[in-house]
Amino acid sequence: MTKSAPIELQFDDDGPLYVAQKKVYPQSVQGTFRRIKWGLMAVCLGVYYLLPFVRWNRGVGAPDQAVLVDLPNSRFYFFFIELWPQEVYYFTGLLIVAALTLFLMNSVGGRIWCGYLCPQTVWTDLFYAVERWVEGDRRERMRKDAARGTRKLQRFAEIVLKHSIWLMIAWWTGGAWVLYFNDAPTLVKQLVTFQAPMLAYIWIAILTATTYLLAGFMREQVCVYMCPWPRIQAALTDEWALNVTYKYDRGEKRTSLKKANELRASGVTAGDCIDCYQCVAVCPTGIDIRDGSQLGCIQCGLCIDACDTVMAKIGREPRLIGYDNDINIQRRQAGKPPIYRIVRPRTIVYTVLIAAVGAIMLYALMTRSLLDINVLHDRNPVAVKLSDGSIRNAYTVRLLNKRGFDRVIAIDIDGPVNATVHVVGADSVTPDRPMIVLGRDQTTELRLLVTAPGESNPQKSIPVRFRVTDIGLGEVASATDNFVSP
Amino acid sequence: MAEHHEIDQVTGTTTTGHQWDGIKELNTPLPRWWVITFYITIVWAVGYWIVYPSWPLLTTHTTGLFGYSTRADVAVELANLEKLRGDKMVKLGAAPLAEIERDPALLALARARGKTVFGDNCAPCHGSGGAGAKGYPNLNDDEWLWGGSLDQILQTIQFGVRSGHAKSHESAMLAFGKEGVLKKDQIVTVANHVRSLAGLPTGKGFNAAEGAKIFADNCASCHGDAGKGNQELGAPDLTDKIWLYGSDEATLIETVSNGRAGVMPAWVERLDPATLKALAVYVHSLGGGK
Asked: What is the ipTM of this complex?
């Protein structure tokens, strides 16, 4: 064995795998988009917290909560709609419409969802408002964090207050969630008197924890690292979509007000941007919009407000940052007027798809049967020969009455010749046509015996149709199976 | 091991001094977290021995601090189940048979309970769906040896057929051949007569008058003059389309020669009254009940 030189393994140094979080201290800002955000926050949170208390009369014996997920009884109530477990596919339609609406939003105004409507944004915004109210604005918070260890008592009190309010909001978030799964006023009473089911407390605890952590600590990290939507939307946007854009056509070169005036006086171009970093200071994800459209930008529009405020102060035209796209920047640079194409094939297709899926869902909902029947043929034995030579088949029949009242239905069968039908346990006054009472909003299981003479039904298997007719309303439902000879 | 201080140049770790065909074993220590986890599992195991039953002794085993046993868990769960059933089964036990079939809730309970009990106790002979087999009646059809009303079915389930129970259905068919009551040719004739009763074709040279006479003398006392059977005696109807053992000539000859005496156990001492009722309702609801 000869001694060889040690093998040197090659490693690419990509640097650390994780970047340490850079704390963001968003500054308060006033303006159009801030007002829109406050308004939407009020609407979103208002709907979320108050909807469980809205009542909707469905008659005696039925829950009167407008929106209720009744898990023990497997029902979902939404105002005038009541869904059974069999109809959960409606949610698929709802999800398709939701996805298409996101696509449409994206092709019109970029990440409207991210910036204004996403729960992560709304709750984080609310938590920032609390933080600002307790600890002060950006500079103050930065100073307090830097000066750790001084004025200990006051600082401690502030931190305790902030986290208490956060936890309270988080607790309400979890508390409102469980109200959608139970009668809200009853559950509130139970919660207050500590008599609610354990499950309710567990879910409140879980959602309190997630809200507190996601909105209080993880914040923009959720958008940047966890959420798939920023990645998806990058594939959905196009050159016409309006995104929050720094209009570099009138921004470069960035320099101070005084210098810009000097440069302009000497015939050199200078931009409107005075490099004041207000857009960066107000940004909740801590990015610089002037670097262009980027993953970290949730397009909340707060930098527009910040920039407009500065532009107004220095007497320059507003909307140096605004909803715009590259096409218009280039057109302006070329001296052409900007054009906006909100209505274009992409948005038309999305709108048509939303309308089509919505119409299909509405049609399916309006025409769905509120009386239904399922039939299961007995397998053992599949057929029985009776003493007079006739054949009997037994079926397990499940009838669904989705209406809120009891109803009488008649059972008929078509198929085997001279067949009679009998319901086990039912003494019907009309022997040839059994009548059954179906309880309101429930299923009824019956054992059905169909008997037919063997000689008039020589086939091995005959299709048989079970028809149930609502005697009062005339509603009909049917199901098919086979009538089999031994 | 102190003398092995050779350091492997590639990895920079020491070797153990073990060598196979020039391949040296590196002395790579286990990761600390692994060793700690290993020690924790040992400590955990000791705790487990103390808390749970673990060590087998000669005739018994250590029971652990809390005397936990999976058997006791099962007993508790079964007791809970009985408690859960309790009220409903009491109601079922108290209701008259006919009323159970008319009350949808009681019927559903009886059918569910009956189905389970049927599967556990009756299925070996009657089949899981009650379809029966040769010698074991089909409970789905409308022919009943001992009667198909709810009360009659319950009676049969409770006390059985030739079960040895004092209230059991008795009376067996005589072995006409074995006992020497009928001669071979007479048996063939009466077998063909029985086939003619059911409208089945008879063999060549069948003497109808002779057949009728043998039947009237020997069989009619139980099966009736017209062969319609008698449920008091468990004598089947010979004119219908249902045959427990078979309707071909050879089988009928065998039946007449050796007699038939199927047996069903009595269940009255094995199942509680409410369960027996549930079973009767279940069998009745299979379709053949009268």
From this structure: 0.73
